[in-house]
Amino acid sequence: MHELTDTHRDALRRVATTAVTHINSIPQNTSDLDVYVVGGAVRDALLGESANDLDFVVVGETTDSMLARGFHDIDASSFGVLHDEQHEEWSLARTETKSGDGYKGIEVDTNDVQLRADLERRDLRINAMALRINTTATPTSIDDSNTTPITGTDADSVFVDPFGGRFDIQNGTLYHVSEAFSEDPIRVLRAARYAARYDNPVFTIATSTERLIREVAPELNRMSRDRIGEEVVKAMKQAVDPARFWEVLRDVGALAVIAPTLDRASIIPAGPERFHREGDTFEHTMMVLRRMHQLCESHDITGMNRVRRYLMAVAHDLGKVELGNEKGGLWSDDPPRRFGGHATTGVDVTANFGTRLGLDAHIIEAMEDASRYHMDFHDIPTWDARKLIEFVEAHTAPPEAETPYMGTVEELLDLAQADHEGRWQNIDLYDAETAYQVDAAAPDDAARPAFQRDVFESQIAVARDAIESIDGYEVLRDGLCDSHTSDTITDDNLARVLNACGDCRSPGEWVGDKITTRRTSLINSETT
Questions:
Q1: For the segment 91-131, what is each residue's pLDDT rounded down to a tens digit?
Q2: Parallel, antiparallel or unpaired: strands 81-83 and 55-59
Q3: Which of 26, 257, 277, 326 is deepest in the core (most CB within 10 A)?
Q4: Which fold has domain 6-169?
């Protein structure tokens, strides 16, 4: 019998209580079901994390018997998955057998499958644990040595761990359940996702599991790009260390399959040693990504807004790889150190990178802007008012847009800071008179330059104020064309005066020029 700590028992009791509360709230007949909470809810309970979803597995039932109990057939014919009234998943215990290429080449069997067999087909041992909820039902056949009663509440349960997932959590190890791990190549990405998702413990991949991953990684080329994209987005959304996801994929040979450009960044210099003591472009990119994570944490940026920023950080320097390929890598006779035009070159490279990963179009366009503007953005303090207004207006998402099809000013500002601070400068070679402020807490032999964010924020704020303060109506009210002056137009006669003027009834491009001129004047007056 596994010895669980009091903390673990309390966490499992909370899961059981939540599950019983949910079961009692649905109209479906569950009175004699042999039912288990499986997977993520149990894993996260033992990791001290809150469970977002409850996934139920039932043993000894069929699709017809579950439908007779009032459950809804969602994907029962193919995978034995049903939903209750609140859309939680209830799955028949099942086994899976690979019969062909890709996700569709898997045969599912739900006929008289016991719990152990269902858990054995899962990817990692930390995901092959279960919590038996309805202890009044006739239980499935389970070795008592793999179970632990969890008592002390009205929601008594039994913890089931036939493969030792709890010990993997204790040891910080990602270990496959069985050789069936290799039947779904997407599990390679999931292993990297779990390695990036937790920091207590930080998981490493077991040697035997890494061997399987290396064998199956080439099969990712046969997988749906949509499934790869979904896994990448999920990894970025969940990560406490997003760079670790990409580092693990590189180390197991999977990055060379799904994103060869980023993989090759490991042999492309980051730039002149004066500015990039970190060495190669991949290392610099991961430093930028980790700095972006810190910014998202401090600014409370979550969800898709965080995913977009992470992937913008990943993509911003891919143009260096394309240019570096023309000369060779770090170990060539003449390794490249300068990458003039890499921002422009990187736009198409980034588009191909995002498409290959199966990312949504709005993410790809944000990544393209990350490449296109990550250098120019640093010049904002020197831009004239007209250029500043045009840029801010073009990169401000409409209020109703959930997912802007551009890199927004806020995203590009965070990228500029992460890019600048995500490197080590050689202070022995650096010109102190022209350098950005140096972080005094950096190591003696290298310094991380600090970004003057307040300068950029003030410029952007002034532009935003001008854009919001002066719109088409304001220009009309004050006299749109040269035929009118503000002292001849009032709110009462505005419509009549303008309708009587041919230029105002059918305004040309000069309208935009007039608005921009007024906004420019406002900016100049505020910054003088």
A1: 999 988 766 655 555 678 888 899 999 999 999 999 999 99
A2: unpaired
A3: 277
A4: Beta Polymerase; domain 2 (3.30.460)
